[in-house]
Amino acid sequence: MRFLPAVPAFVLIFILAGATVAVAHAAPCAADQLSLAVDNENGNFNGMSHSGTLLVLRNLGPAACTVARFPQILFTDAASTTLPITRAVPRGMHPDPVVRPVTILPEAELTSRLRWVSGEVYPHSQCFTPAALAVVIGDEKLTTPLAARICGPSGKVTYDMTRLVPDPTASAASSPNRCP
């Protein structure tokens, strides 16, 4: 039986965990080292008066960096005016839990599932049709076009968001439809 040569435990964790490993002392990402895209996954989010998209952040820079697991998301109209659509706070998280940033390795992607109500299902529904989605990174915004209809009770239009996690299926060669 062959044994692996003596390898420090942190190296094995890095190899096994891939992009999910936290890189010590990674600086916060700058907006210019990231790209943003959305992917409706061929309608995978659509049904029963709901819709959504997969948010994709890619690190284009040469070094690992960190982003908030729940970054601020803005929906804007064609005139770049921010629409009154907010993230729904999950039950038991008031106002929010303390969630550590996630590290994104060079050429790696982070993804989050965004979901919302897309039909007028409330007695007094209010709907918006954003033209773009923006992610706030530091003092800057990354923006990408978005074709969506987002509805909610009048005065309380919200969306749900999963935390950003490394995309284990992404690689620069195998993801031509993802961020450039």
Write the layout of secondary structure elements.
Blueprint: H1 9-17, E1 27-28, E2 34-39, E3 50-59, E4 65-67, E5 73-76, E6 85-87, E7 102-104, E8 109-117, E9 125-128, E10 132-137, E11 140-145, E12 150-153, E13 157-161, E14 165-166
Parallel strand pairs: 1-4, 6-13
Antiparallel strand pairs: 2-3, 3-8, 4-7, 5-10, 8-13, 8-14, 9-12, 10-11
Question: What does this 3D model show about the protein?
Answer:
- This protein has one domain: Immunoglobulin-like (Sandwich).
- It is built from one helix and 14 strands, in the order αββββββββββββββ.
- The protein is elongated.
- The N and C termini lie far apart (45 Å).
Which tags fit this structure?
single chain; 180 residues; mainly beta; Immunoglobulin-like; six-stranded mixed β-sheet; three-stranded mixed β-sheet; 1 helix; 5% helix; disordered C terminus
Rg (CA only): 18 Å
| Sequence of secondary-structure elements | HEEEEEEEEEEEEEE
Which residue ranges are poorly predicted, with pLDDT under 50 across at least 5 consecutive positions?
A: 1-22, 171-180
What is the terminal separation in angstroms?
A: 45 Å
Number of domains: 1
What CATH architecture would you give? Sandwich
How does the major sheet shape up? 6 strands, mixed
> How much beta, percentage-wise?
35-45%
Average pLDDT, to the nearest integer?
83
Protein structure class: mainly beta
Overall shape: it is elongated
Instruction: Using the coordinates above, name the CATH class.
Output: Mainly Beta
At the fold tier of CATH, the topology name is Immunoglobulin-like
How many distinct beta strands?
Answer: 14
State the share of residues found in helices, binned by percent: under 10%
